[in-house]
Amino acid sequence: MTFSLEGRTALVTGARRGIGAAIAAGYAAAGAELILMARDAALEDTLEAIKQNGGEATVITADFADPAAVEKAAIELARTRQIDILVNNAGTIRRAPAAETTTADWQHVIDVNLNSTWAVTRPIGAAMAERRTGKIVTIASLLSFQGGVTVPAYTASKHAVAGLTRALANEWGPAGVQVNAIAPGYISTDNTAELRADPAREAAIRQRIPAGRWGRPEDVVGAAVFLASSAADYINGHVLAVDGGWLSR
């Protein structure tokens, strides 16, 4: 039962597909009730996966490019629901050389990946701290450790997410709230579609991964369940790489 999420309510952002959808389904299988926050309500596949895993979910809509709208939705959730687990998964990427990255593109990525993460986490985390219990899991990136190429805003946002994880762990840890992050490696999702479509880049990336393959969204689920469970009660402020061994090369 150490890894059970039975009786807990989990809020997962950006759960329409990819890693967020996989985590939502995994949490349902572990016994959690789900609240999904997404840009729109078109979450049929995720909802069906949750149902098949014996769970149920509520959908809340908010545009993560609009942190003020996200904050409003999060404040209302914190007021009306007891959120035991928060998974900050919503994210985006825009690829261009730094000299060609527009201010609009920079701001869009920072708003979605960082500012909206803060907008959700502050009210939900504060309520957890007041109750003296809770788990926060944020999806970081290998680019929380590395610089990457042609993704300056994404890299900046993911470094910031790792720093925010540690800062909040320091503040809320004494109140019984564990704040951690997962840094997925190269996973087959929409964000990596452009890389996988380039034969040279795809091969170069895959050949560096000791596991010998790109990750799947499901590869992240075990770590997400672990960090949300009582098995991780003494883990705080950690960024856990789930990368097939990429960082070891």
From TrEMBL:
PROSITE patterns: ADH_SHORT. Coiled coil: none annotated. Gene3D superfamilies: NAD(P)-binding Rossmann-like Domain. Keywords: Oxidoreductase. GO terms for molecular function: oxidoreductase activity, acting on the CH-OH group of donors, NAD or NADP as acceptor. It comes from the Bacteria. The lineage of its organism: Bacteria, Bacillati, Actinomycetota, Actinomycetes, Propionibacteriales. PANTHER family: 2-DEHYDRO-3-DEOXY-D-GLUCONATE 5-DEHYDROGENASE, SHORT-CHAIN DEHYDROGENASES/REDUCTASES FAMILY MEMBER. The keyword Oxidoreductase applies. InterPro entries: NAD(P)-bd_dom_sf, Sc_DH/Rdtase_CS, SDR_fam. Pfam families: adh_short_C2. This is 2-deoxy-D-gluconate 3-dehydrogenase. Belongs to the short-chain dehydrogenases/reductases (SDR) family.
